Fold this protein.
Amino acid sequence: EKCDVRIPTLESFLKLKPGAKKITIRGLTLTGCSGTAITFDGAEDCVVEHCIITRVGGFHGSGIGVSTGKNVRLSHNEISYTGSNGIGLSGGDRKTLTGPGHIAEDNHIHHMGVFNKNACGISMYGVDNTAAHNHIHDGPRMGVQMSGNNLDVEYNHLHHLCLETQDGGAIYTGGRDWISSRGSKWRYNLIHDVVGCGQESGGLK
């Protein structure tokens, strides 16, 4: 009788489609949606900064998702308790190695993957996307998951990851795509306390 029960009925707070340009989203607190809180699909020269995004998304719902378009910058946001990933960046042509130039920088991302235990702090796919100076911690699997070319992962602080899964790491790439991550750079990242769970009854390793 004393519980406060809330059921989100809204899928997303903001969806920006092709044709959206030079839009800045700043200083908002967003909580309680069933999908990804903010999505950019083909938008150009947009910014999300100094926002708090928490307790959003079901199994496939993230904090912010960016696909195609160009020059979307996500900066100084705190993203937490997401159903799946904290941030997703994608876009670019791997045949011509031309990319959108999306950037996630100086974000604090934690307690992602509430429902999807394969979730990460930042996922990057395609060409020419950057994750820099982010603080990512307390996640069930990877800090940064990436696949593509000319992707930069630098100056991030990654810790207390792989808390609920095995076969992962602070940064995860490649797989069976043998040209994946050619031209990409990992540098100057601080990584510690990446735990990993075993598959046997012993649990944590």
In short: The radius of gyration is 17 Å. The first strand starts at residue 14 and ends at 16. Residues 196 and 202 are 12 Å apart (CA to CA).
